[in-house]
Specification:
Length: 376
Amino acid sequence: MWNTALRFMTYDKAKLTGILCGIVISIFLIGAQLGILNNILDMSLGIVKGNKQYVYAVDKKSTSSTSLVNVDKRVGNELQSIPGVAKVYPVVVAGGTTKSRSGGTAMAQIIGVQYPEMAGAPELYTQETVLNNLQNEGAVIIDAGDVGNMENIKMGEHFTLNDKRVFVSGMSVNNAGLGQYNIITTVERARQLTGFSPNSVSAFLIKSTSADTAAINEVVKEINKTIPSVKAYTGEAFSEVSIEYVKTASGIVANFYLLIGFSLLTGIIIVGLTMFSSVNDHIRDYGTIKAIGGSNFLIAKLILRQCLIYALMGFVASLALLYGLQAAMAAVNQVIIYSPALLTGLFLVTFAISLIGNIFSMRKIFKLEPVQIFRM
């Protein structure tokens, strides 16, 4: 049966190519858009990215990790007294403007963290980065993905941040901001650079005495019960809240979903029309199968095998293109990650495109009477 299905497919190589091109183009566009969307949502996590092991205590008016309302820094002492809390780390997040050597300006998000814990800072850095250098006067860490936009600035070179001279003491990896530079420095230097109030912080990151999920949830519950001025989240929960805020407050996600829908529809139309044309070319063959006793169920199995072969061939070709895109983006320090769940979903979509594209063809064959082949 598989050989028969393959022979039907390869009978007209032009139509085979057309069907595969429709599948590959559609799946590549869907996969690329979903990969880029995931990257955008990942960039929107702010201080949560790479720091989900902490408990977050933020002002109740804060809607996400990128929309933080200042908290009185004295709350830190209250948090430290909560059972199960090992250490409380203040984080300062404020806006700024960079100025390059040529005079070009760009928006920046300045994140102040405490050394050596670096709670709220990125997880990964380049090999040349020595975190201890962040304690030097004027030291900041930029993301390696922003180097090109910052006129290929190098380690140790200076630039202007909020009209103050700073230098690059290190570079993070995969911490590019969404429409702005993410710049890491100490809490004290962040206050100096931005004029941030010495009596406030943006958030508190809390290290629990236990890594057990139940113990961390108990700390969150106790903070929310004891300190009414803040709301506590686990790292995972605050990540979900932040992503959901971006999805609902921004039109970016809706635009991506619209493009994905059009890509899916385009694939179905191309595959459907080409398959319908292919069935018309083979209508006498299908009629002959029915004339010699072949049932609609037998023909359905034959077509479903063709769908699966199309899906496998199209998915493999699409996967090669998607990983090529991933490598190209990595070359400019932009990360696109295809999770196993995403790849599984893409294969199912590939099979769905192939199957839906065949439905109209199957209906025509099912309605075909064997005697009709003698009239063709």
